[in-house]
Amino acid sequence: MKDIKERTKSWWKLNLANFITVVGLFLTIVFIYLCLYHPEMLWLIAALIIPIEASDYIDGKIARRYGESLLGSILDRKRDRVFIFPSLIILAWHHRWKLEQLPTALVYAGKILIIITIILEVITLLTFFVGVVLKSIEIVFYNQKKEKLDLGPNEAGRDSIYCGFAVITVWIWSLTIEKYSGLPVIYFSTPLLAYGLGRMIWKRILSLHGYWERVFPKN
């Protein structure tokens, strides 16, 4: 009986972070669905941000304490991307978010920043696959020493993700407060959003550079 309890406890330590990540991923999918098909339920959309971001923080703390599985690492990154990039696209282009209340130049500038962000994300994914392929070629055909490839986000990559979370949170909550209070919050929060997007782009560029250096370090 004691052995069973110990194994159960050990299993929970190893998989609790994964469970929280899956819950966060499910809530993220619900969040995206509501943004697309029920934008009038702004209070619920804003409320969902809290458990989504809390799950990201909690599963990270647990994973660092008890160890992170490969599955958990993959799920966590996918959850971040599913939350950030579709949300930015929906917020910028979905006609029911009423961005026309902002100056036209400001709207276009914001959309350009989001387009750059998405392009950089695509480049990141391509770099990931190219790095894996080229590293495999080095090992197979040039008898290079097989080493564990560090595919995790570096500090700049994590900062980029945090900026994405912050931008979406400020954007959604500004819209929510404006809807229910009548105050022009989104107008005044726009400079903060622009700064967040700009910082997100810069950190993504640094992350790409750092990733490439990790894959192919200079001799």
**How widely separated are the two ends?**
55 Å
Low-confidence stretches: none
Separate helix tally: 6
Strand content: under 5%
Domains, number: 2
Shape: globular
Summarize the amount of helix as a percent range. over 70%
| Assembly of the depicted chains | single chain
N-to-C order of helices and strands: HHHHHH
User: Based on DSSP secondary structure assignment, what is the total number of beta strands?
Assistant: 0
Average pLDDT over all residues: 76
* Global structural class: mainly alpha
Q: What is the makeup of the main sheet? A: none
Question: What does it look like?
Answer:
- The protein is mostly helical and 219 residues long.
- It folds into two domains: 1-79; 98-219, no CATH class.
- Helices cover 83% and strands 0% of the residues.
- The chain is built from six helices and no strands.
- α1 runs parallel beside α3 (70-93), α2 (42-66) packs antiparallel against α5 and α3 (70-93) packs antiparallel against α4.
- The longest helix has 38 residues, at 104-141.
- The chain is globular, with a radius of gyration of 20 Å.
- The protein starts with a helix and ends with a helix.
- The mean pLDDT is 76.
Short overview:
The protein is mainly α and 219 residues long.
Topology:
Layout: H1 2-37, H2 42-66, H3 70-93, H4 104-141, H5 155-181, H6 185-215
Helix pairs in contact: 1-2, 1-3, 2-5, 3-4, 3-5, 4-6, 5-6
Question: Which descriptors would you attach to this protein?
Answer:
single chain, 219 residues, mainly alpha, 6 helices, globular
